[in-house]
Write a structure and sequence with these properties.
The chain is an alpha+beta fold. The chain has six helices and eleven strands. It is globular. About 25% of the residues lie in helices and about 40% in strands.
Length: about 240
C-alpha cells in the first residue's frame, strides 16, 4: 500500500452531527459498522524501554513508525497487527492478521535467558520465529533487541464513511479513552478513562491521490482547523 493523505480535525458534537448527516448523503457506510453505523476499536500500542515512539511523536520526528494490535467490538475473531509509518505528512499502514497464539506471543512480556527481564539474542528465539510472517518477525525482533512491549490501550467508537473514488475514508471518533487493562482487551467491559474533553469529536479524512470535490465541499463547515492530534500520544501522556 502506498502512502496516503491523512487530515485530522477536532470538532464539536453539533458539527459532527451536521457533517455525518452530509456524509451519509454522498458516501457509503462501512460494511463493518453494522446497524448502528459505528463500531468500537481497541488498539494495544507498543513502545521500547526508552519510550522512543512516544518521544518521536512528541518531537514530530520524520519519518517515524508505531506498532499496534487492533481488535473490533472487543472480539477476538479478527486480530490485526499494524505498523503505521508517517513520512512527509503522509501515512502508510502495513498489516497482518494474527492468530490468538500469535497475539499471546506478541503481547507477552519478554524475559531474558537468565530470567532478569533483559532481552536475549535473536538466536535464542524459538524456531517458530522463522515461520512467522515478516511483520510478526519484525515486532518479535524489536521485543528482543529493544524490549518493545505493550504500553497502552487506545479505545474509541468510530463512525466511518467510505468512497471508492480516491479511496476516501471520513471517520468520526468519539469517547476516546486510555487503558492499561491488557487482560481485559477482549472483555466487554474494559477499565478505561476518557482523554478527550466532553463535547469534542475527532474527524479524520484519509485519501490516496485526490479528494473528490463534492466530498471536499460537503466537509466545509466554517473554519475547521487541521490538527496533528495523536490518539496514541494523548493516551500515553495520561498513562505515564
Amino acid at each position: 500500500m502506498d502512502f496516503r493523505h491523512e487530515y485530522k480535525f477536532i470538532i464539536s458534537i453539533p458539527q459532527s452531527l451536521i457533517l455525518q448527516s452530509r456524509m451519509a448523503e454522498i458516501m457509503k457506510r462501512d460494511v463493518h459498522s453494522g446497524q448502528s453505523g459505528s463500531y468500537e476499536i481497541r488498539s494495544i500500542y507498543f513502545d521500547d524501554i526508552n519510550n522512543t515512539c512516544y518521544i518521536q511523536n512528541e518531537a514530530g520526528t520524520d519519518p517515524r513508525a508505531k506498532y499496534r494490535i487492533r481488535c473490533y467490538n472487543a472480539s477476538d475473531e479478527r486480530i490485526v497487527l499494524e505498523k503505521k509509518i508517517k513520512q512527509n505528512g503522509m501515512t502508510k499502514k502495513l498489516h497482518e492478521d494474527l492468530s490468538k497464539e500469535q497475539y499471546r506471543m506478541l503481547t507477552s512480556f519478554s524475559m531474558g535467558a537468565d530470567g532478569t527481564g533483559l532481552p536475549g539474542a535473536i538466536g535464542e528465539m524459538d524456531s517458530s520465529f522463522f515461520e512467522q510472517p515478516p511483520l510478526v518477525q519484525e515486532l518479535l525482533s524489536l521485543k528482543q533487541m529493544r524490549m518493545m512491549q505493550p504500553k497502552v490501550i487506545v479505545a474509541y467508537e468510530r463512525t466511518p464513511f467510505i468512497e471508492e473514488a480516491g479511496n476516501v475514508r471520513v471517520t468520526f471518533d468519539d469517547r476516546i479513552s486510555s487503558s492499561a487493562d491488557f487482560e481485559g482487551f477482549f472483555k466487554e467491559k474494559l477499565h478505561k478513562r476518557p482523554v478527550m474533553p466532553v463535547g469534542e469529536t475527532l474527524m479524520e479524512v484519509k485519501f490516496d491521490e485526490f479528494l473528490p470535490a463534492y466530498i471536499k465541499e460537503a466537509l466545509e463547515l466554517g473554519r475547521l482547523s487541521q490538527t496533528t492530534f495523536s490518539k496514541y500520544y494523548l493516551c500515553r501522556r495520561y498513562s505515564l
